[in-house]
């Protein structure tokens, strides 16, 4: 009896070992090699490139230059491993145009569909950015107007408060100081989006320990762990730290939902804000509780993170180009606060050039083919393939941008300094997808106008109050993966002569 038992235990052990080996081999093969039905006429980026940012000291610029540039310049599309699967990444503007125009074939399929089990997907859910078809139309019918025409009346005052915060951090007995900029910029962009679009004054620029800011920083620290960003598939396992991350996400969503709802019940609630419109739609039964939260959270997330990234990159290029600080200061310092800054030529050129070289959303892979496709008549893409674009690479494409790696705002300025011509060129660059920082077409960014509005005010107040330079001890590097901006930027702020005695 014990002899047979031994044999059975041994065989079971062998079978389990073999199954584990087969499973592991299969996993490795699916990570190392793209699926066999993927197009053969575009190159494959080695699978490990996607992990370099997390496990080496390389930043996104270095990874692009060493591993992506040549192949993408030549082919305009590659096979790339990202977020637990193989995808097609497109950077050639002509291909991108086709994809963005054809929503039915290259359908939006955000994280809630691609990696529904991931902690990240639990955070942002099924929202206006990631949804497709009728659900997307429903969300848009509720919030489009509020996002395109928000209440901008508090933004200038917020920019002044930001300057005050920086001045307070420099201190009254000093004229200059090196400061980390992350928290300042996050509070400024959060305050703007919450006030203008959700109708809530969180007083983020008044209270140093403001609750939303603290909670947001904490929940993000729980969600964004590089291993799980690369392998979200592991979020399915009962790993204690990920279970905790899910709980923290739920707590944050509950807190935030309650704050948005409470605000809409007040007598003076802004009835045209996106917060109010979502609440109205919830009361009318047009959207569910979950859809209410998913969309309120995405307005908060997309509405503050992307501008924050852009502000950071702007400070970086401003610090590196003192000549442009002077130009912008001369253009803006004596301009009244109520004057629309949309028509200032150097200001726009500086922002557009920063967007070209440092698009906040570098790589976005959230389209899925609904049937077999032949991209540009050349690249055969099977049904069910994830497709994405990379603004960082497209913005530096040397076939469309001369000296593409050089920061030259002048390239946006027409010879006759005609602002309408300049804005036309910006628009055409979006339509042609040579610069898709705000995307283009039907699914283009709804918040672009507001983002540019707050950005112009931000720059005006910075150059009118400070001379800035890079802290020499700061290591000049971009983020290693994900959104694009200089990492942990430290700026030396020097009060302008005229402001020193104030
Ligand atoms: C510098 C700032 C910003 C940048 C660079 C940016 C960029 C983008 C990009 C690239 C997309 C397309 C994403 C995709 O292809 O899946 C997008 C979509 C979107 N953005 Fe922005 N964004 C910015 C600011 C904002 C702000 C302030 C809001 C306000 C809430 C906002 C709301 C949206 C919405 C709602 C969509 C989805 C539109 C749709 O699909 O119907 N964005 N944004």
Tell me what you see in this structure.
- The protein has helices spanning about 1-30, 50-55, 60-75, 95-100, 110-115, 120-125, 135-150, 155-170, 180-195, 210-225, 225-230, 240-265, 275-285, 290-320, 320-330, 345-355, 390-395, 420-430, 450-465; strands at about 75-80, 85-90, 105-110, 175-180, 365-370, 375, 380, 385-390, 465-470, 490-495.
- The protein has about 500 residues and is an alpha+beta fold.
- It has two domains: about 1-30; about 35-500, Cytochrome P450 (Cytochrome p450).
- The strands form three sheets. It has a five-stranded mixed β-sheet with strand order 1-2-8-5-3.
- A hairpin with a 3-residue loop joins strand 6 (about 375) and strand 7.
- Helix 14 (about 290-320) packs parallel to helix 19.
- The longest helix has about 30 residues, at about 290-320.
- It is globular.
- The mean pLDDT is about 95.
How would you summarize the topology of this molecule?
Blueprint: H1 2-32, H2 49-55, H3 60-75, E1 77-82, E2 85-90, H4 93-101, E3 106-108, H5 111-114, H6 119-124, H7 133-148, H8 155-170, E4 176-180, H9 182-197, H10 211-223, H11 226-230, H12 240-264, H13 274-283, H14 289-320, H15 322-332, H16 345-357, E5 363-369, E6 373-375, E7 379-381, E8 386-390, H17 391-395, H18 419-431, H19 448-465, E9 466-470, E10 490-495
Parallel strand pairs: 2-8
Antiparallel strand pairs: 1-2, 3-5, 4-10, 5-8, 6-7, 9-10
This protein binds protoporphyrin IX containing FE (HEM).
């Amino acid at each position: 009896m014990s002899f047979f038992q031994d044999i059975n235990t041994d065989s079971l052990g062998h079978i389990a070992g073999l199954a584990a080996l087969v499973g592991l081999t299969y996993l490795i093969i699916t990570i190392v090699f793209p699926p066999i039905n993927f197009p053969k006429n575009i190159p494959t980026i080695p699978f490990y490139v996607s992990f370099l940012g997390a496990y080496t000291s390389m930043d996104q610029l270095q990874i692009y230059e060493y591993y992506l540039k040549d192949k993408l310049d030549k082919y305009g599309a590659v096979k790339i491993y990202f977020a637990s699967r193989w995808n097609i990444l497109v950077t050639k503007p002509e291909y991108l145009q086709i994809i963005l125009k054809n929503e039915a074939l290259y359908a939006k399929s955000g994280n809630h569909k691609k990696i529904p089990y991931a902690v990240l997907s639990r955070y942002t859910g099924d929202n206006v950015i990631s949804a497709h078809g009728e659900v997307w139309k429903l969300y848009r019918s509720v919030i489009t107007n509020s996002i395109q025409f928000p209440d901008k009346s508090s933004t200038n005052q917020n920019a002044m408060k930001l300057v005050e915060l920086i001045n307070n951090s420099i201190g009254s007995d000093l004229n200059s100081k090196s400061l980390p900029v992350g928290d300042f910029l996050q509070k400024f962009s959060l305050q703007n989006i919450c006030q203008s679009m959700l109708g809530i004054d969180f007083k983020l620029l008044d209270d140093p320990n403001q609750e939303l800011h603290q909670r947001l920083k904490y929940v993000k620290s729980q969600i964004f762990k590089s291993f799980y960003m690369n392998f979200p598939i592991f979020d399915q396992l009962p790993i204690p730290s990920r279970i905790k991350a899910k709980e923290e996400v739920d707590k944050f969503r509950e807190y935030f939902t309650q704050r948005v709802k409470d605000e809409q019940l007040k007598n003076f609630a802004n009835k045209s804000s996106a917060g109010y419109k979502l609440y109205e739609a919830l009361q009318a039964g047009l959207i569910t509780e979950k859809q209410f939260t998913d969309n309120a959270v995405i307005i908060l997330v997309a509405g503050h993170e992307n501008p924050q990234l852009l502000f950071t990159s702007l400070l970086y290029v401003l610090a590196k180009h003192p000549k442009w600080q002077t130009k912008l200061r001369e253009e803006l310092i004596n301009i009244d606060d109520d004057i629309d800054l949309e028509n200032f030529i150097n200001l726009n050129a500086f922002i557009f050039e920063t967007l070209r070289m440092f698009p906040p959303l570098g790589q976005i892979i959230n389209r899925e083919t609904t049937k077999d496709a032949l991209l540009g008549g050349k690249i055969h893409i099977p049904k069910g393939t994830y497709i994405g674009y990379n603004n960082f690479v497209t913005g530096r494409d040397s076939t469309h941008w001369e000296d593409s790696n050089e920061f030259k705002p002048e390239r946006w300025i027409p010879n006759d300094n005609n602002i309408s011509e300049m804005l036309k060129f910006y628009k055409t660059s979006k339509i042609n997808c040579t610069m898709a920082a705000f995307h283009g077409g039907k699914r283009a960014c709804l918040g672009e106008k507001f983002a540019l509005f707050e950005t112009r005010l931000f720059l005006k107040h910075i150059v009118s109050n400070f001379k800035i330079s890079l802290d020499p001890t700061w290591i000049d590097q971009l983020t290693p993966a994900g959104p694009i901006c200089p990492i942990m930027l430290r700026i030396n702020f020097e009060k302008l002569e005229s402001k020193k005695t104030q």
